Fold this sequence. Notes:
It contains two helices and no strands. It is an all-alpha fold. The chain has a domain at about 25-55. Helix 1 packs antiparallel against helix 2 (about 30-64).
Amino acid sequence: MSKVPHPLQVVMFFVMAVIFATWQPFVWWRVGAAVLMLGFGCYGLYVLRRSRRKESSQEPGELE
């Protein structure tokens, strides 16, 4: 199983964070959940970018 998240999965974390932050009633634990989901979304973006950088750096070496 790949450790790289699907791009849709990363986008959904950001969407869920916005929904949790704006859904009524607005209570303190919703803020915590939104911040946690934004953190997971940012980590997912980091993992996606790192994996794409690794793939692009490996391709020229494999052609030679």
